[in-house]
Amino acid sequence: MIPLCFICCAGLSLIPYAEAQRDLGSGASVSTDSAEHSLSPTEEAQRLISRGQLSEAEARLSSLATQQPEPAGVERMRGMIHYQRNDFAGANSAFEKAILQDGNDLLAIQMRGVTLYRMGQSAAAIPFLERANSPIASVNADGTYVLAVCYLEVRRYDDARRIFAQQYKIPSDSAASYLFLGRMLLRRNYPAESEQMARKALQIEPGLPLAHLLLGQLALSRSNAAGAVVEFEAERTINPMDGEVYERLGDAYLRALRYEDAQQALNCALLLEPNSTGPYILLGQVLLKRDDALTALNYLLRAEHMDSSNHIIHLLLGQAFHALGRKEDATREYKIAENIQNAVENQR
């Protein structure tokens, strides 16, 4: 089979697989031994698309489009080219034509739904994604994810939970399904709804790991350090071997000005996740607050060795060097932090 190209979709890699074309009857199978010599014109165009040769593929498709009747799949492939160029209006038009030509072209149907989603039309995208979801969900899981996200956007939370549960093979009414939905809602910046789902998960299963962790993250996002401490301490009781729990708890203690507790929690985090920069950075902050700049410097230098492009690390190194009276080193680190931050801003 000739694989279709990868398509970026809001952080996804949406892959309309060639296997789906075979299974759905919308493409032809090609032997690997004779692929280069027995390709049809449409298969040749598809091969060019899969190799990223979009202009060449477009020329082939334009030639094919003059035939009467137009060969099956031409408009879908045109839509794929427009999509990869981020020309979503053009892609939508092409996929619409493909569906008019073949109402059973499920890849075109799904891609029209994805395109409408990319155009900010989640409600309009849902019928197309729903129609394509069941037949090809096992082939293209990313399309299923886009459908679930569309449900979130239009606040059809039960439908989104059902889709996520199906995708991750968990019971749709389980505590885990509500917690998963809560995490996805937080990712989509729906904090109130996220909290509601996390609390529902705990009602179903009070000892569910990661639920209090999510509630603690929500509390921190609202600058409620005391509330975050309560949630992270509850998570520690349920899930004592997760290093992230201690890192988050240390952060909450730091914000609550409980520096000794923060240092103890972050030391535990280091033992459980020694390759993560987070605990080192937070320990540097805690030790600076406790006027132990020399020890802070050691932790921050370790963090800098692990991630030299983090401007926060260099900013804290500057503070540590300044506290130790090493002004030239402090100035250097402040400058590095500024340069990194400016570079990031320029890339936006």
General description of the model:
The chain has a domain at 1-154: Tetratricopeptide repeat domain (Serine Threonine Protein Phosphatase 5, Tetratricopeptide repeat), CATH 1.25.40. A two-stranded antiparallel ribbon has the order 1-2. With 348 residues, the chain is an all-alpha fold. It is built from 19 helices and two strands. Helix 4 (74-84) packs parallel to helix 6, helix 14 (243-255) runs antiparallel to helix 15 (259-272) and helix 17 runs antiparallel to helix 18. It has helices at residues 18-24, 41-50, 54-65, 74-84, 88-101, 106-118, 122-136, 141-153, 157-168, 175-187, 191-204, 211-221, 225-238, 243-255, 259-272, 277-289, 293-306, 311-323, 327-347, and strands spanning 7-9, 12-14. The two termini are 38 Å apart. A hairpin with a 2-residue loop joins strand 1 (7-9) and strand 2 (12-14). Residues 27-51 are annotated as: Disordered. This is Zn-dependent protease. Residues 28-43 have a biased composition (Polar residues).
Helix proportion? over 70%
| CATH T-level fold name of one domain | Serine Threonine Protein Phosphatase 5, Tetratricopeptide repeat
CATH class designation of one domain: Mainly Alpha
Q: Taking Cα atoms only, what radius of gyration do you get, to the nearest Å?
A: 26 Å
Number of strands: 2
- Please indicate the percent range of residues in DSSP E strands (runs of 2 or more): under 5%
| The CATH superfamily title of one domain | Tetratricopeptide repeat domain
Stretches where pLDDT is under 50 for at least 5 consecutive residues are 1-11, 15-35
